[in-house]
Write a structure and sequence with these properties.
Elements lengths: L2 E9 L5 H14 L3 E6 L13 E7 L2 H9 L3 H11 E9 L2
Length: 95
């Protein structure tokens, strides 16, 4: 069953973005990840706290998503992201 990594990001600075962007797509693809959406969310109901950017990556399974997140090559990218953005992520099983 597919799994979806849904990230919410608000930039604090953009210094880290070029290096991160140069490596993250290949790392996600290594684990079967396929980007589905990236952009500024639009509120259509309620008053949620809205990040600047939402990201959705589809993985073949929860196991693939966890393998991507825990891959040793992800550690330096997480550090870059954490140093330059407010970020949170959840994993959701597909239907």
């Amino acid at each position: 069953m597919a799994a979806y990594a849904i990230g919410s990001l608000t930039l604090l600075n953009a210094d880290w973005v070029p290096e991160y962007s140069a490596h993250m797509p290949a790392l996600a693809q290594k684990h079967g990840g396929k980007p589905l959406a990236k952009g500024a969310p639009v509120i259509i109901e309620g008053t949620p706290a809205v990040p600047e950017t939402q990201i959705i990556i589809e993985f073949p399974s929860m196991e693939h998503a966890h393998a991507w997140y825990n891959d040793p090559a992800h550690a330096p990218l997480k550090k870059l992201r954490q140093g330059g953005a407010e970020f949170s992520m959840v994993l959701v099983n597909g239907l």
